[in-house]
Amino acid sequence: MLIGVATSDDVGVYVLNEEMALVLTTDFFTPIVDDPYAFGQIAVANALSDLYAKGVEPLVALNLVGFPAKRLPLRLLSEILRGGSDKAREAGVVILGGHTVDDLEPKYGLAVLGLARPAEIIPNSGARPGDHLILTKPLGLGIITTGIKRERVSPEIEAEAIRVMTTLNRAAARAMRQIGVHAATDVTGYGLLGHLRNLLVASGVSATIWLSRVPVLTGTWELVAERIVPGGTLANHAYLAPFVDWAPDVSEDAQLVLCDAQTSGGVLIAVASERTEALCEALRENGALAASVIGEITAGAEGRVRVLP
Ligand code: CO
Ligand code: CO
Q1: Are 59 and 102 contained in the same domain?
Q2: How many CB atoms lie within 10 A of CB 8?
Q3: What pTM, to 2 d.p., does this model score?
Q4: What is the pLDDT of residues 39-92, one digit of tens each?
Q5: Near ion ligand 1, which residues have CB within 5 Å?
Q6: CB distance 292 to 134 below 8 Å
Q7: CA 219 to chain centre
Q8: Do 264 and 298 share a domain, yes or no?
Q9: 179-207 in b/e burial notation, b at 16+ Cβ within 10 A?
């Protein structure tokens, strides 16, 4: 094993020889949008994201499916799987098969395998003081999907959130391989600051985040002002409190956005500052949704985050 749970990395890596390692990950969850086809696409984009965050191209996958066949029409399941297989095809991933169980709620995701040279796999542990932090998708997906469930979101905002969640993180993987970066992770359930903290602890460094530079989805601020926020986001905020120094004028609304639990969020990258411009250009050329410089790695106490306005 090269990397895995000890450094909170997103994947398991099993080294076969100096030239080749197996890179494995899995992810599955219950529907977060009503449209079964979109849910299938989101579940696959999200499951592949852990490999892309390590700079690795996924190769093959297996479907993991739970479905209440006695309670819901089977055409919903075939729509979920059609969304998943279309997204996998876009990624160039072959779904070899899978397994379905009878379940109380629908669940869908993948077990994914990629191959990579061990030296090319981007770890959580490589961030160094002076590195810039780059984010490749806007935040607010947890807040917006909660707003969708409570019917408080316009069709335009819902469509934009689905577009973001169904976008593969392949652009980030390609840009990182082209330019060379120190560390990377994707931003999912623990929110931006939770995943940042894992990266900082693994690297033995601290960081400063510049709130005004962080991209946020349209509609997020209105919902968070009314406390339409998922439970996971509130839990992240409480859990991270001892590790974060909030500047006095960083509002509680902003704190919740930075801790918002994402589904199929972007990649958070630590890159040497002299390569920042080249990385952002490569991200844009490859079609990333954002290439935002949101902060920097510092040499302070391990795992601490300072948030400035
Ligand atoms: Co991940
Ligand atoms: Co994951």
Answers
A1: yes
A2: 18
A3: 0.96
A4: 999 999 999 999 999 999 999 999 999 999 999 999 999 999 999 999 999 999
A5: 10, 50, 186
A6: yes
A7: 20
A8: yes
A9: bebbbbbbbbbbbbbbbbbbbbbbbebbb
